[in-house]
Amino acid sequence: MPGEGGNNAVSYEDDGKVVTLNFPHIGKVSKVHTGLFINNEFVSGEGGKTIEIQNPATGKTICKVAEASSKDVDTAVDAARKAYKTTWGLNVNGFERARLLNKLADIIDKNQQELAAIEALDNGKAYTMALGADLQGVLSCIRYYAGWADKIFGQHIEVDQNTHAYTRHEPVGVCGQIIPWNFPLMMFAWKIAPALATGNVIVLKTAEQTPLSALKVCEYIKEAGFPAGVVNVVVGYGPTTGNAIASHPRIDKVAFTGSTQVGRMVMKAAADSNLKKVTLELGGKSPNIVFEDADIEQAIRWSVFGIFFNHGQCCCAGSRVFVHESIYDKFVEAFQKISAQTKVGDPFDPNTFQGPQISQLQYDRIMNHIESGKKEAKLVYGGNRVGTEGYFIEQTMFTNVPEDAKINQEEIFGPVVIVNTFKTEEEVIEKANNTMYGLASAVFTKDLSRAHRVASKIEAGTVWVNHYNIIKANVPFGGFKQSGLGRELGEYALSNYTNVKAVLVNLGAPAPI
Asked: Please, what is the angle between helix 448-457 and helix 425-432, to 10°?
C-alpha cells in the first residue's frame, strides 16, 4: 500500500541499541534508543530478550527493542521508590514540578514533526493526524497539568474552638501505568502528566507494538531535568511485564488503558497483591443518535469522523449509529459518499485519512467480525482488504443489524460501522443503553431541550452534542459500567494520584480521662 515518497522512502537501521529512522518527507533523521529507560538511563533487559517492532503499513520489521522481565520491573520500582524518598515526592514543591513539566512540553513542541513521524511509522496512523491531533493533545495535556502542579492543596475544616482540622492532598507514591497501542504518545501524556504534577513517581509499560515515540520522549524527560528514577519506562507483554506491574507489592497505584477483559485481570492482580489503588479506562460500543431535525450534512460528516478516525481503533468510536427512520435512507446514501472521499493508504501521504490496522492479529480480529456481520446483517459497502501488503481494511458499513448480533455487542476496534433506525426518543435511548459498555455517545439535534434530556438518560461518561471525538485536556474522560473506573483528564484526574490525609490538632482540650 505505501506509495512513492511515502513509506517506501522511509528507511531504518538498527544497531542493537539505537534505531536510526530516516524521514525524507520532513527532512529529518531520528535516533531512538531501544533499551529500557530506568533511572534516567537506557539499559538492556535482564534476560537479554527483545521484541520486534513492525511497520503496520508493510508488515516489515523496523527494529528490536529490549523486553522487560519481572526483575527489570523490580529494578525500575527500586529506582522510582528511591527518587520518591529523596529527589521527588514531598521533597520537591509544586513550582518546580510545574517548571519541569513546562520544560518537557517545550522540548516536545520543538520536535513535533519528528515525534509525529515516529508515531505514523510504528502505529500506522496518518502523519497529518499524528501531527495535527495527537501531538496537540500531548502538549495541551502536559501544559494543563503543569498549571495544576502548584495548586494541589487541602482545606481547613471548622470543628470546634479546641480543634484545628485540615486536610493534605499527598502523592500516592510509586504509580504503575500501562498504556495501549492506539494513541501511544497521547496515552503516555495522559498518564504521566497528572502523576508528575501531584508528585508521584512512575513505572510505565508501553504497548509492545508501539514503544518508539515514548522511548524518544524519555530522552526529553532527562533533557528537561527530571531527577533519575522519577519516570521509568519499560516495554513488554501484558501477561509478563504488565502483570509484574499490576501485582507488584511495592507499587502503590496502577492505571490501565485497554480492553475490559484485561482490565479485569489488572484489577484482580492489584487486589490480590497489596490492594493498590486502580483506575481503568476500558472499551466501548458507543451509540451515536441522529434525530430527524439534525443538520444532516454535518451529522454525517461528524459520524464518519466519529467511527473511522484513527482507523476505528478508538475506544470511544461511534460504532453504533441510530438514525431516525424519516431520514435513514438519505443518511445511509450520503454517509457512503462521504466515507468514499476519505483516503485509506500510506500514512505518510498527506491525503491519507486512514492508515493500516496495528497488526496482523488486529487485522484478523476485525475481518472475523466482518465475516460474522455478513451472516447476521446487511453489508452495505466495504469489508475487504486494501492492497497486498500491510494491514489495510476498507471502511465498512452494516445495516439491519439485530440487537443481539455479535457485531452489535462486541467492540470491534476497527473501521466498521453499524447504522440502524429508530422511531421514538424512548426507543433509541433504550437501544443506546443496551450494552455492557458506557464510555461515550453522541446526540445530533437542533432541539437543545431534547439534547440535554437525552444526554441525561444515556449511560455513558461522555455525551457529545452535534459533534464527535472532541477531547480537551481540562474536561474529564472515562466510562460508566464496564468501560472503566475513575477519570482521565481535567481536575478530576488529580484525585487518582493523591491520598487525602486528615490532620486534627488539639488546641488545649484536656484528656477525657
From this structure: 40
